[in-house]
Amino acid sequence: MSGELSPIDKAKFVAARQAAEFVESGMRVGLGTGSTAAWLVRCLGEKVREEGLRIKGVPTSTRTAELARDVGLEVISLDEAKWLDLTIDGADEFDTELSLIKGGGGALLQEKIVATASDQMIVIADAAKEVRMLGGFPLPVEVIPFGWQSTQALVEEILISMDVMGRQATMRMNGDRPFVTDEANHIIDLHLSRIGNPRQLSMVLNQIPGVVENGLFIDICDKVVIGHSDGRVEVR
Ligand code: 5RP
Q: Which of 4, 106, 124, 230 is 20 to 30 A from 15 via CA?
């Protein structure tokens, strides 16, 4: 399945393969979105086909749902599952407290809902995703389309009042149109450089009426499986 991989894909693959070992028959499993999570879905597909693993998967995006079905996983909705044993997902950044930035792939809303409805969340990541302070990766904020420019102006005002570094907010684009999420919303990316108080920033952002959710995952991740390009894996 892994063939000849680039160093970064090898790191993602070994993290995903290791994390797949935490999945047991009978589990309801949240399936993340992104290139690392795609490796996880493929590894689980292989286990279903070759080892008789029986699981029900709840995908966090239409992309992941499609891949999961293609590799032979049983796919159900979160409403059908109601509660999950485990969610495994990628991340754009993680710090020593296992706080995360997610949403680089635009699926943060479903990802956060699914991870929060799980007994456990495991993040799979290549070693380059580890940071001392979150914020180098632009923080995605999902906003409803109605009045998004006013919402963006409010977000910028709040960043200035909080004296957060960077402060630049940009609408994520898909060609010449705003990017549209699976929930038919848009994403504003915040270029902050460093986020000194992620908990406070997350709470403040989510109080703005047009904001649906932001990509800071705090007290959600329980474990991180870190893959290295030489094939080593660390679990924290
Ligand atoms: C998608 C996400 C992804 O998990 C995150 O962007 C990491 O992606 P990748 O594994 O491709 O580096 O949050 O919304």
A: 106
Sign of CA dihedral 120, 15, 187, 201: positive
CA-to-CA separations, 60 to 93, 130, 148, in angstroms, rounded = 18, 23, 24
Is residue 130 flagged as an active site residue? no
Tens digits of per-residue pLDDT, 109-124?
999 999 999 999 999 9
Task: Report how far residue 191's alpha carbon sits from residue 43's, in angstroms, rounded to the nearest whole number.
Answer: 34
Whole-number pLDDT of residue 165: 65
Nearest in space to 220 (alpha carbons), one of 86, 129, 127: 86
Q: What is the pLDDT of residues 123-139, one digit of tens each?
A: 999 999 999 999 999 99
pLDDT exceeds 90 at position 72: yes
Candidates 5, 6, 33: which one to mutate for ligand 1, based on the most atoms within 8 Å of Cβ? 33
Contact by Cβ (8 Å): 141, 181: no
Tell me how far the alpha carbon of residue 52 lies from the centroid of ligand 1, in angstroms.
Answer: 28
134/195 Cα distance (integer angstroms): 5
Distance set, CA 19 to CA 39, 57, 93, 106 (Å): 10, 15, 18, 23
Half-sphere exposure for 211 (CA within 13 Å, toward CB): 24
